Amino acid sequence: MANDPPDAGTSKEINLTIPMLPNMEITATQTAEAVARFMEFEPDQIDAVKIALIEACINAFEYSNSSEGQVYIKFIMNPEDLVVIIRDHGQGFDPERPAALPKKHRGKGLTIMRGLMDHVEIASGPGGTTITMSKARASR
Amino acid sequence: MTNDLHVQVRKESSYAVISTDGYINNVGGEKVGEIALGLVDEGYRDLILNLEKSNVVNSIGVSILIELVERIQDVDGRLYFCNLTKVIAKTFTIMGLAGVAGIVATEAEAVAALAAPQGA
User: How high is the ipTM of this complex?
Assistant: First the structure.
C-alpha cells in the first residue's frame, strides 16, 4: 500500500533546505513530525526527534557563520530507523571542544541531541558541519 | 503549532500559575521570564509553570528558564514546573534545570508542594 511505512530493504529520502532565519527550525520539525508519524513512531519518539533537530538547526544558525545562510536537512526513512542529516557550509568547529559561550547555562545542544537520539555523529571542518543522527522505531 | 508562545496567568491567593502554549525558545523564555518576574514584583513568591501545551523547547529557552529559577530563588521564591512531556523532562534534566527547580507531574501536585513549608 502507498501509505505503508518503508518495507525491509527499502529507504526513502526527503530533502529540505531552510534559511538561517529566526524560528525556521520549526519548519524542519513539521517535516520531521510528518515523517516520524508516517513511520509510526510513538509520540515521545517524535518529540525527541523534533527537539534534537531543533538543537542541530540552532547550532548551525548560531555558530556556523555560514555566508550562504542555509541549512540542508535530509530525512532517510529506513525500515528500522529514521536518520536525519543536518548540514551547513559554515566554518566548522571541534565537536570535542566546543567554543566557550559567554552566557551561563548554554552550550548543551550536542548533549541534548546525544541524550534524545540513539546515535549522533558529528563531522566538522573548514567546509562546514554535518550532524548525522538516528532514532530507531521502537527505542527509548 | 505556531511559532508564538501564548501565556496565560492565573492568580490565586498565595501563588500564581503561568500556563504556556507553544514553543519555548529565546523569545518564549524571555516572555515567561518577564511575566514571572512581574508576578514576583507584585508579591507572588510561589509560582507554578504549567507546560501542558508546550511540547517543544530549545536549549536557549531552557537556559533562560534556569536563570529565572535562580532569580526567583534569590528572593526566597519557589517555582514548580508541571505537566512536562517526557522528552521535555529529559531535556530539563540534561540542561540541569531539574536539579535546581521542582518538577512535578500535575498542577495539583505543584500546589501541594507549595503548601508545604519552605525547606520541608
Answer: 0.90
